[in-house]
Amino acid sequence: MTNALLVIDMQNAFLHPDGENYYPAAAEVIAPAQALIAAAQQSETIIVHVADTHRAGFKDYEQVRLPEHGIAGSFNAEFFDGFGPQGGREIEIIKRRYSAFFGTDLALFLREQGVDGVVICGVKTNVCVRATAQDAFANGFKVQVVREAVNTNREHLGAAALEDIERYLGRVISQSDALEVLG
Fold this sequence. Notes:
Number of domains: 1
Oligomer: single chain
Low-confidence stretches: none
CATH superfamily: Isochorismatase-like
Largest sheet: 6 strands, parallel
Helix content: 25-40%
CATH topology: Rossmann fold
């Protein structure tokens, strides 16, 4: 199986204390996600850095449920220090919905590269991580979510999302198993 690493929303909005969607537990995924990225870089695995980014001054359907956020060019939309494409086999996908697949060319890109499985890390487990896992499954990719490299500010919803992912969409794997998969 050929995997790609999907790094979801590791942006200032969630990870920086001044971020508009910051929650303290988000910091717990920084080191595990960086370790996954390092392993993927070493093995030349494709890394997709996903950014939740929206256009200033335009309505966006997410605003039905959420306030305006992640405006392109803003501090909040920027990748947090140590994240974002570093060259090589790394790309950025901008998304305007919870899923990295919805309305983007991510599935097409991965298929063109011969990828048939995804390893997912990032924030937030019950929203963007779960939506991405569900759409990865719907697009025919084998899904693996790294338990230590995802979290949310709604712990009970995060646990429920991981249970759903394990039961219906793919596997929830440990950090050590993920490092082996990417190595």
